[in-house]
Amino acid sequence: MNSPWIKVLLSSLWVGAIATCALPQVSLADDSAPAVQATIVLPDGTECYWAGPGATLAFEGKRLNYTCGDTLGLIGDTTIANGTSITLETATINGTTITGSTPQTLAIASVMLTDGTTCTSAAADGLSRAIQDKPLDYFCNNSDTAAGLTGAITATNGVLSVDRITQEGFDRGYVETMTISTLTTAQP
Q1: Secondary structure (DSSP) of the chain
Q2: Is the pLDDT score of 35 beyond 60?
Q3: pLDDT at 118
Q4: Residue 83 lies in a domain
Q5: Counting C-beta atoms within 10 Å of the first and last residue's C-beta, which end of the chain has fewer, N or C?
Q6: Is the pLDDT of residue 106 over 50?
């Protein structure tokens, strides 16, 4: 039992156990997966799809970034404030011409992540939720663990990302950056 190898092995196991108890787990998103551009669902149920890079229609210097059928689109930048509201500009399309636009600010009712998890606005029920002292903007419907979305939703070329925090056990959990596949809006 006084073998130096056993002492090294036992001390390594002991240090590993302390590190596991003291530090939060951190998991990084899988960067090898292809980017998924989010679908934006308007309050009336109309689905808007990323128009892609390159040349598209434009109106008053604003690019058509999302198409929502033959006669509607979203132009210019979409701005997501506090992770809970989105400002966008709907555009009326007639053939190959945009004939007008209307800016509007909408509430974000829910998001679906690329892993199939749906997360609904935490403000909908008026309750304040937090995991590891991080306030949740959305509560995710995962029956196995407590999970929610926290922090800003970022947008880059139609790809929307947000941090999901998951609690496992009493005081342990991890944060991972997730991609949103569908963002559903509602009237404020």
Answers
A1: ---HHHHHHHHHHHHHHHHHHHS-------TTSPP-PPEEE-TTS-EEEE--SS---EETTEEEEEE-SSSEEEEEEEEEETTTEEEEEEEEEETTEEEEEEEEEEEEEEEEETTS-EEEEGGGGT---EETTEEPSEEE--SSSEEEEEEEEEEETTEEEEEEEEEETTTEEEEEEEEEEEEEEE--
A2: yes
A3: 93
A4: yes
A5: N
A6: yes
Asked whether 125 and 109 are in contact (CB, 8 A), the reply is no
- Distance from C-alpha of 47 to C-alpha of 53, rounded to nearest angstrom: 19
Q: Where is pLDDT greater, at 77 or 134?
A: 77
Alpha-carbon distance of 103 to 105, in angstroms, equals 7
Please give the Cα distance from 188 to 180 (Å, whole number).
21
75 shares a domain with 31: no
- The pair of structure tokens assigned to 129 is 């939720």
* Domain that residue 69 falls in: 49-107
Report how far residue 188's alpha carbon sits from residue 186's, in angstroms, rounded to the nearest whole number. Answer: 6
Q: For residue 152, which phi and psi values (nearest 5 degrees)?
A: -75, 145
- Whether the model clears a pTM of 0.85, i.e. scores above it, the answer is no
Residues 125 and 161 in one domain: yes
Report the distance separating Cα 59 and Cα 155, nearest Å: 21
